[in-house]
């Protein structure tokens, strides 16, 4: 799976939560650009976990601010 | 020549860091401060600074000179004014003094602390009981100590703040599952390394909506994946199960829960927290659990009132039955009035009225207070799914007449502010 494939699948998962229709790039931030609160983050993370059959622990989540960082984390977790 | 010590004469307060400048650490709370000021500017009373000038009984207090029915306490079993409880507290206060001024592991364990732990062991039928200074510290201490580096904590997304904080205090990896979803818990446990240590943290009653957990199904899934289980019974103690131990007893999971955490600040009617267990090595926690070791133990009067109350709760069948009757009546009565309640039926003694937004919630809260009724206002982030709630919690000491009055106040207030037709 290339980073591009992961990005596309992440973008699909962001879609239902992207209420303001923000355009997505690797640099898009969840808190500032997408304006997600902690509850939205929780729902989104659960959706991504199920999509890729992985676990993104809350410890990891604390380090992830952008879409690019999430893609990198998913690649690491699925490469195992 | 100048003085050896140069005294700068022009230093004034104006040279000190400006509190509103870029380095003001409180500036991050500005959005909340502004939101609060805007709300109070509409003329409503501050829901988070109520003062009770007199407390007449478990169900009645004086707020701003007015007799007010209390429907927002966790005094489920109404033990705070029990004559035996008060007598035990007074006696201990006189014989052992006002406080221990020390840690449980040094000079802070008195006869009363041991008697309180004995009462808990009897109440729960367990081999071990450890008393903490608050329920918050019990979760903080037990969770952070049980799950260490390389272990996993798997918790419900709607867990209480003390559970989340217990996770952050320790070094374990933290995984959340969707509230009360057995399937979600199963899936997440299945993705964890087989050999890793795992602690599943559940609550009997979730305090915001007052809903209970499907414990038998969750316990089965946790056991299948080799996890240990901690169940917080803060809102279940006293009136669930044949012995009042909690939801886990009512649902028949006693053999499978490894650790039960609870509090004295709800049904027991004082303050303090505890954990009970049959694990043979449980007592080691007294040496390694920082929120147990590095704080002063409970005052002698508090453990004496707790022990007396716990022993009385073992034989409180009539009170339990009345509390359930009150809860079901209020739930049905509020629904009949047209309110939306967070649960389909009265699953616990917490009945959560759902409101569309903060303004309506605060308006109704204030109208109820003016009508002589106190309930708890709950808002995000404490509430799930961004909801605004007026949380009612019943007491075994609410009389039938009081429940009638409560419903009448809800009817009048709801119509006055346009929440119900």
The domain count of chain A comes to 1
In whole angstroms, the N-to-C terminal distance of chain B is 86 Å
Could you tell me the radius of gyration of chain A in angstroms? 11 Å
CATH topology assignment of chain A: Non-ribosomal Peptide Synthetase Peptidyl Carrier Protein, Chain A
**Sheet with the most strands of chain B?**
7 strands, mixed
Give the neighbour order of strands across the main sheet of chain B: 4-12-11-10-7-5-6
CATH class membership of the largest domain in chain B: Alpha Beta
**What is the CATH domain class of chain A?**
Mainly Alpha
CATH arch. level architecture of the largest domain in chain B:
3-Layer(aba) Sandwich
What does the average pLDDT of chain B come to? 94
Q: DSSP strand (E) fraction of chain B?
A: 15-25%
General description of the model:
The complex is a heterodimer of chains A (80) and B (421). Chain A has helices at residues 3-14, 38-52, 58-61, 67-79. Chain A is an all-alpha fold and 80 residues long. Chain A has one domain: Orthogonal Bundle (Non-ribosomal Peptide Synthetase Peptidyl Carrier Protein, Chain A). Chain A is globular and about 35 Å long. The model of chain A has no long low-confidence stretch (mean pLDDT 93). Chain B has 421 residues and is of the alpha/beta class. Chain B has two domains: 43-77 and 316-416, Aspartate Aminotransferase, domain 1 (Alpha-Beta Complex); 83-313, 3-Layer(aba) Sandwich (Aspartate Aminotransferase, domain 2). Chain B is 37% helix and 17% strand. Chain B has helices at residues 30-41, 83-96, 111-124, 135-146, 161-169, 182-190, 215-224, 247-250, 285-288, 290-293, 300-313, 317-337, 358-370, 400-416; strands spanning 52-57, 60-63, 66-70, 128-132, 152-156, 173-177, 198-203, 205-206, 211-212, 228-232, 259-263, 273-277, 350-355, 373-374, 376-378, 388-393. In chain B, the strands form four sheets. A seven-stranded mixed sheet of chain B has the order 4-12-11-10-7-5-6, sandwiched between helices. In chain B, helix 3 runs parallel beside helix 11, helix 4 packs parallel to helix 5 (161-169) and helix 6 (182-190) runs parallel beside helix 7. The longest helix of chain B is centred in the last third of the chain and has 21 residues, at 317-337. The N and C termini of chain B lie far apart (86 Å). The A-B interface holds A 37-39, 42, 45-46, 49-50, 53-55, 57-59 and B 152, 157, 167, 173-178, 184, 187-188, 191-192, 380-381, 384-386.
């Amino acid at each position: 799976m290339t980073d591009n494939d992961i990005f596309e699948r992440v973008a699909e998962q962001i879609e239902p939560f992207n209420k303001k229709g923000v355009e997505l790039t690797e640099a898009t931030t969840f808190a500032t650009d997408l304006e997600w609160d902690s509850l939205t983050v929780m729902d989104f993370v659960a959706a991504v976990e199920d999509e890729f059959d992985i676990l993104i622990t809350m410890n990891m989540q604390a380090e992830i601010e952008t879409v690019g960082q999430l893609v990198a984390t998913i690649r690491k977790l699925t490469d195992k | 020549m100048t003085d050896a010590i140069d005294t700068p004469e022009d230093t004034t307060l104006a040279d000190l860091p400006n509190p509103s400048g870029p380095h003001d650490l409180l500036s991050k709370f500005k959005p909340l401060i502004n939101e609060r000021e805007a709300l109070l500017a509409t003329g409503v009373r501050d829901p988070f600074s109520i003062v009770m000038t007199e407390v007449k009984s478990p169900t009645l207090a004086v707020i701003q000179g007015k007799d007010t029915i209390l429907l927002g306490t966790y005094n489920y079993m109404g033990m705070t004014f029990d004559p035996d409880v008060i007598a035990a507290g007074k006696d201990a206060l006189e014989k052992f003094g006002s406080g221990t001024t020390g840690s449980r592991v040094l000079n802070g364990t008195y006869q009363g602390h041991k008697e309180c732990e004995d009462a808990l062991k009897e109440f729960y039928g367990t081999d071990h009981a450890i008393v903490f200074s608050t329920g918050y510290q019990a979760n903080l201490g037990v969770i952070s100590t049980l799950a260490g580096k390389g272990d996993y904590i798997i918790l419900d997304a709607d867990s209480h703040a003390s559970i989340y904080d217990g996770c952050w205090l320790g070094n374990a990896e933290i995984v959340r599952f969707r509230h009360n979803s057995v399937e979600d818990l199963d899936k997440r446990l299945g993705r964890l390394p087989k050999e890793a240590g795992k602690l599943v943290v559940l609550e009997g009653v979730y305090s915001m909506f007052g809903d209970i957990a499907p414990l038998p199904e969750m316990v089965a899934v946790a056991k299948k994946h080799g996890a240990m289980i901690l169940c917080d019974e803060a809102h279940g103690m006293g009136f669930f199960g044949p012995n009042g131990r909690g939801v886990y007893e009512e649902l028949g999971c006693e053999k499978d829960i490894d650790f039960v955490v609870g509090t004295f600040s709800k049904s027991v009617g004082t303050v303090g927290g505890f954990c009970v267990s049959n694990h043979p090595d449980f007592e080691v926690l007294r040496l390694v659990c920082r929120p147990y070791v590095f704080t002063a133990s409970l005052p002698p009067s508090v453990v004496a009132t707790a022990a007396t109350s716990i022993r009385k709760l073992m034989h409180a069948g009539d009170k339990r039955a009345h509390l359930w009757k009150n809860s079901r009546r209020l739930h049905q009565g509020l629904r009949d009035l047209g309110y939306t309640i967070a649960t389909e039926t009265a699953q616990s003694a917490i009945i959560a009225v759902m409101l569309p937004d903060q303004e309506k919630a605060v308006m109704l809260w204030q109208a109820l207070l003016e009508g002589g009724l106190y309930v708890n206002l709950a808002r995000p982030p404490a509430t799930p799914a961004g909801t605004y709630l007026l949380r009612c919690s019943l007491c075994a000491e609410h009389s039938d007449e009081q429940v009638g009055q409560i419903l009448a106040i809800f009817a009048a207030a709801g119509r006055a502010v346009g929440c119900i037709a």
